[in-house]
Amino acid sequence: MGLHCSGPAEAIIHGVRLESNQLLLALPMQESLQLSCLLHQQRFALLEENSLLPQAHALLLTALMNKQDIQLEFHPELPECTITAVELKPRS
Predict the structure, then answer these.
(1) CATH of 3-88, one of 3.40.50, 3.10.350, 3.20.20, 2.40.50
(2) 26-70 pLDDT, tens digit each
(3) How many Cα neighbours within 13 Å face the side chain of 33?
(4) Could you give the C-alpha distances from 56 to 6, 42, 62, 77, 89, in angstroms and in order?
(5) What is the rounded radius of gyration, in angstroms, for the C-alpha atoms of the chain?
(6) Among candidates 18, 39, 27, 34, which has minimal Cα distance to 82?
(7) What is the pTM (predicted TM-score) of this model?
(8) Please, which domain of life does this record's source organism belong to (predicted)?
């Protein structure tokens, strides 16, 4: 596993923005500093473009509404914070 952050969805995701074919997640600045990547518009991490955009959006909203833990994995070789995987953690 490469770069990642995990924890309560509401602590990691400070906003969700949908633009044409892109899903952007507002992350706290300290997360990007820990990951050593650059936030888009100094605020957003981009979900890597793929055909699973609707499912990823639903998964993130589910995590936020149910106050569940998530794990976001980031592309280790890109300078921008680019999310490659989203995992919804089971409730304990």
Answers:
(1) 2.40.50
(2) 988 776 667 788 888 889 999 887 767 888 888 888 999 999 999
(3) 3
(4) 16, 22, 10, 22, 14
(5) 12
(6) 39
(7) 0.85
(8) Bacteria
